[in-house]
Amino acid sequence: MLRAERLFQLTTLLRNRRTVLTAKQLSDHLGVSERTIYRDIQSLSLSGVPVEGEAGVGYRLSRHYQLPPLMFDRHEVEALLLGARMVASWGDPEMGRHAKQSMQKILAVLPDNLRHHDENLPLLVPQINEAQHFYTAHSQALRSAIRERQRVEIDYQREDGEASTRTIESLGLIFWGKVWTLVAWCQLRNDYRTFRLDRIQYLRVLEDKFETSDNKSLNHYLKLMENQCGQNTN
Amino acid sequence: MLRAERLFQLTTLLRNRRTVLTAKQLSDHLGVSERTIYRDIQSLSLSGVPVEGEAGVGYRLSRHYQLPPLMFDRHEVEALLLGARMVASWGDPEMGRHAKQSMQKILAVLPDNLRHHDENLPLLVPQINEAQHFYTAHSQALRSAIRERQRVEIDYQREDGEASTRTIESLGLIFWGKVWTLVAWCQLRNDYRTFRLDRIQYLRVLEDKFETSDNKSLNHYLKLMENQCGQNTN
DNA sequence: GTTTCTACTGACAAAAGCTGTCAGTGACGG
DNA sequence: CCGTCACTGACAGCTTTTGTCAGTAGAAAC
User: Fold this and answer.
1) How far apart are the C-alpha atoms of B194 and A94, rounded to whole Å?
2) Residues of B in Cβ contact (< 8 Å) with A85
3) Spatial separation of the C-alpha atoms in residues A59 and A98, rounded to whole Å
4) Cα B65 to Cα B80: distance, rounded to the nearest angstrom
5) Is the distance between the Cβ of B2 and the closest atom of strand D smaller than 7 Å?
6) How does B28-49 read in b/e, with b if 16+ C-beta sit within 10 Å?
7) Which stretch of A32-41, A59-68, A162-171, B51-60 has the lowest confidence by average pLDDT?
8) Which of A19, A56, A186, B117 holds its CA 20 to 30 A away from the CA of B135?
9) Is residue B55's beta carbon less than 7 angstroms from any atom in nucleic acid strand C?
């Protein structure tokens, strides 16, 4: 049921965004032509779904539109399970616990024919604890510091052995497959710097708070990186 | 959207009933053949709608369908989002699409204060497509072969350059952070063998099916590995 | 035991629907 | 005026869906 699935995806996409989405964005996202998006929008409207659109602006869906209850097909359940296993193995332990908890909640409401996919999923992510705690060193403290916007003091040792102590403003964490890096504003250099978590020798969260701005934020850093490399980081 | 409308009507009809409805009753009500009703019921079931049915009795919708939306807290939403990003970046493209779709569904039913976490989550997983398609080579075909229990013919090149052609029985895929390996029963060696996906030069799924047994299955392989290493693979 | 009935599945040809491409329209801005 | 953009209509080709019919399995009746 390809088209019906897509219509449902359209409603969730349009409902999830604060800002509008253009037909071009929707067609890119869903892998169909813009003409098909126009048809889909019309179909939804004819079916009573309150899609709002303005020429030259884009579409959105009223936040008050009630979606049907949550359903996942087999593919989606497998993807969610694989994601939870990846987080459990390659995220920090707290993150892993939350991933497992959320999966238990999802499994609990699945119909019987999907419920036992966890036990039988042939997509494994081994937990080799020593290796993985090495790569997620300090992750939990840093996630909290990012959220609370607290400055952090670190002792860092570069690959070549050179050590430094810095006070930084943590903005985000990036997973590169095994290795995590921290994106931060470094007061020592007065610029963005990235630090591999496994090379942070010591870390202390300070009481001191920081502010972000248009020119000092994770999004700003990502725009700079995209301009340099043209790569997609989400 | 005749069929999509009808599927929606089916869920509505089945949900509002205390008693079951037969395929004949449903076909009369919706003006289609019974064969079409059987197909619709199967489609709904495959999409994760919990339709229950008994031979000679009829259909109804599981009480699960009427449960309140799942409730996730902020930590769980973040863990799910990180998992989806990891799958999108380090799983194969199809798996990534399913991860994103399932996340949109979850986000759509969240309260407003949690819905926009996707846009703001400071935990990133870059998509560097060339690298990641390298590591997930043949993943989609292999997932299908595992599920359908179809033998596969591969040309494999080891790290030292030695090449071989084998017919194998694919049992599972393992993610080691960047690298994926295939666990298979190798007919050439009459034993389990693992193969890095990025070293499979060529792969063809055969029509030929295989059986698993207590002594030839992913679970058996994992028990052997645990006895050797004592590590936790889930 | 056999026969009949019912619910369901697979296969097939025909019908219906869907898709992307392309031309055209209207609104807007320069 | 021209160019751009969002959208609509038309069309050929492709994909999906449909109803019919034969077959299967299980249960009930004889």
Assistant:
1) 31
2) 175, 234
3) 34
4) 22
5) yes
6) eebebeeebbeebbebbbebbb
7) B51-60
8) B117
9) yes
Sequence-ordered list of residues with C-beta below 8 angstroms from that of B43, at least 6 positions apart, any chain:
A1, B7
**Which amino acid type is present at position A151?**
R
Percent of chain A with pLDDT over 70: 96
Higher pLDDT, residue A110 or B103: B103
CA angle A21, B9, A52 (to 5 degrees): 20
> DSSP assignment, residue B230?
-
CB pairs below 8 Å between A and B: how many?
246
- The Cα B50–Cα B44 span in angstroms is 8
Amino acid at B80: L
Of A105, A103, A148, A134, the C-alpha closest to A197 is A134
The Å distance, CA of A40 to C1' of D1, is: 36
Average pLDDT, chain A: 87
CA distances from A209 to A59, A143, A156, B53, B68 (A): 38, 14, 21, 59, 39
Give dist(CA A17, CA A28) in Å, integer.
16
- Closest partner residue to A98 (CB to CB) among B76, B104, B231 is B76
Beta bridge partners of B173: A123, B182
**Tokens standing for A46?**
């004819």
A87 with B87: Cβ contact below 8 A: no
Nearest-angstrom CA–CA distance, B175 and B89:
12
Terminal Cα distance for chain A, rounded: 29
Is the predicted pLDDT of residue A38 greater than 80, yes or no?
A: yes
Nucleotides of chain C touched by protein CB (<7 A):
6-11, 16-22
| A91 neighbors B66 (Cβ within 8 angstroms) | no
Residues facing B180 on adjacent strands: B175
Rounded average pLDDT over A76-101? 94
d(CA B76, CA B106): 11
Q: Do B69 and A74 touch (CB under 8 A)?
A: no
**Cβ(B208)–Cβ(B150) under 8 Å?**
yes
Task: Give the separation between CA B61 and CA B16, rounded to whole angstroms.
Answer: 9
Instruction: Please answer whether residues A90 and A136 qualify as being in contact, where contact means their C-beta atoms are separated by less than 8 angstroms.
Output: yes
In order of start, what are the domains of chain A with their CATH numbers?
Answer: 2-61 (1.10.10.10), 74-127 (no CATH), 134-229 (2.30.30.520)
Mutating which of B98, B113, B152, B196 best tests the A interface, going by the most A Cβ atoms within 10 A?
B98
Write the pLDDT tens digit of every residue in B46-89: 888 888 876 556 888 776 666 666 788 899 999 999 999 999 99
Give residues with Cβ within 8 angstroms of B125, minimum separation 6.
A174, A175, A233, A234, B82, B85, B86, B88, B89, B90
